[in-house]
Amino acid sequence: MENFHIEGSTYIPRVDFNAETGVLEIEGESYHEYTMEFFKPIFDWLDEFLVESGLTITLNFKMSYFNTSSSRRFLEILTMLEDYSKEKSGNVTVNWYYEAHDVDMQESGEEYSDDVDLPFNLIPVE
Amino acid sequence: MISKNTISLNSTIWYLMNEIQEERFSIKQFKQRLEDNKISMAFQGILSQDILTLVGQSLRNLPNNQVLAKRLFGLAVEMTQNIHHYSAQKIYSDKDGRDIGMGIVCIGQDEDFHLITSGNYIYEKDAKVVKERSRYINSLSDEELKQYYREQRRAPQRKDKPGANLGFIEMRRKSGNPVYVEVIDVNEEMSFFILSVKISKEHNQNNINN
Question: Are A36 and B157 inside 8 Å of each other by CB?
Fold first, then answer.
């Protein structure tokens, strides 16, 4: 399966999903006006990737800002991974990186970790 | 060929235009009014992604307070995206290949707080919805807001609405203040919708020290 890459810009994040290593990385800012359109290829790739059972997956989440519309899409991604770990014996870990001073991104991470049943590491970056 | 008549007609129009402009609209007075009201930035027109990015980025340059700058930026994003999607006044943009909402956004500040306020036309049927929603969201405590946000984020995407239905809740949470909503009746079909949020400089400064 092909790896997936989106080059980030001011309002869209860099996305790097590696099918071989199972490392999924999202970094930057996300405030596209039409997140359903922007995230569509991301969901399509994940749908295909998550067909095979028992994979080890690491989601490295390195966002510094996202709007409410993206926040919904991220919950959808996390829910997909949660379902995968439960139904297809996946081994999924989420690493939530945030700048150490950024109380808002920390709180966001805490809220997502309460919302999904996945190993969730909150990692402050100095 | 330019005749003598054309020239005199043109200069008459020019003269009239100047008169009209002086009487009805003076950009100098307009600037003065913005300054008197401590408005540092005002934008009117289509709230495209490009405009939002520019307006937003200019708010990120607050010195020594990245959390406050990002919150203010976040408020501007939610507010302008509301207008982009839900303004009743839309114009087709070639670049974006779709209709984009028009409205006005102003940002100002006082010694104690930043204020961001926006205005746009909405359809009459939406007026009641925004009034009730803002009233409900303003009545919630911090903990209730947090729960409501998570509950709404889990709810299915609303049909034909690109937004997340989380904007008001986010503005309440990020600003720590109520969202002020005012709806002015215009005609049977449309109303003018004003949305304002204050964000305290001191409160957000404390957050960083904690």
Answer: yes
The closest of B174, B176, B140, B188 to B71, measured between CA atoms, is B174
Q: Which of B70, B146, B164 sits opposite A65 (nearest CB)?
A: B70
CA distance to partner chain B, nearest, from residue A84 (Å): 18
DSSP B190-210: EEEEEEEEEEEHHHHHHHHH-
Residue A59 CB-density burial (10 A; 0-12 exposed, 13-18 middle, 19+ buried): buried
Could you tell me the CA-to-CA distances from A33 to A13, A54, B128 in Å, in that order?
A: 13, 35, 25
Could you say which of B52, B74, B163 has the minimum Cβ distance to residue A65?
B74
Q: What is the CA radius of gyration of chain B?
A: 21
- Strands (DSSP E) along B15-164, which ranges? 39-46, 90-93, 98-109, 113-123
ipTM of this predicted complex?
Answer: 0.93
In angstroms, the CA B195 to CA B27 distance is 25
- pLDDT tens digit sequence for B105-116: 999 999 999 999
Chain B residues whose CB is inside 8 A of the A28 CB are none
Nearest to A48 by CA among A6, A84, A12: A84
pTM of the model: 0.89
State how far residue B146 is from chain A, nearest Cα, in angstroms. Answer: 9
DSSP state of A18: -
